[in-house]
Amino acid sequence: QVQLVESGGGLVKPGGSLRLSCSVSGFTFNDFYMSWVRQAPGKGLEWLAYIRSSGATMYIADSVRGRFAISRDTAKQSLSLQMTSLTPDDTGVYYCARVGNGFNHLDSWGQGTPVTVSS
Amino acid sequence: QTVVTQESSFSVSPGGTVTFTCGLSSGSVSTSYYPSWYQQTPGQAPRTLIHSTNSRSSGVPDRFSASILGNKAALTITGAQAEDESDYYCLLYVGSGIWVFGGGTKLTVL
User: Fold this and answer.
1) Which residue from A25, A109, B7, B106 has the least number of CB within 10 angstroms?
2) CB A3: neighbour CB atoms within 10 A?
């Protein structure tokens, strides 16, 4: 059974940093691209980033490029999102998602971890 | 910057049929955008319904179908049920490794 479990969310002050993690199980982590998606309170989904299975190639949405970085650790079966220079607009629930076969959709989702940026 | 457009809301009667669309602020949606569709109820993680334009994900009822209609991707629910009351999002691959979600459509079943 595919499982994705996010952690690391919480309250952070504007200008601060936070590192989110996503621990996976139930599938061969090395075989899949992975992605992060967020959702601001009362708003829609926003795709943030994905990283290829090798970890050598990643793509970041314009809205967070230069502040957010995606990475993966095969040994730990874990995906990360390093977030810096946070603003209140970064507040929301952050979801880890697996990229499905064909590399063109998200086929499994975690339950999300909430991030609040506030002074 | 690419904007993916969706209707903000729809209402359907139980047993009825409803079609949502997913378009582009500039240009037409084709299979090359690999449209996928996601269902989300409040407080829950999204659920994948459709990928690669019209392929249902595992466990998704066959009342959900999808296609390209004109210059947009479309999701149709035939025989809507109360449990289908949710938010629906489309996701498009717009090139250069970038994906964009639409703003979502809120479906009310009443």
Assistant:
1) A25
2) 12
The residue among A68, A117, A67 whose CA lies nearest residue A88 is A117
A117: β partners: A12
CA A70 to CA A19: how far, in whole Å?
Answer: 10
Dihedral over Cα of B1, A105, A111, A30: its sign: negative
* Mutation site for B-interface testing, chosen from A22, A35, A43, A45 by largest number of B Cβ within 10 Å: A45
Any B CB within 8 A of A100 CB:
yes
pLDDT of residue A101: 85
Cβ partners under 8 Å of residue A24, min gap 6 = A2, A3, A4, A5, A34, A77, A78, A79, A96, A98
Residue from A47, A105, A106, A111 whose CB has the most chain B CBs within 10 Å, to mutate? A105
d(CA A3, CA A96): 10
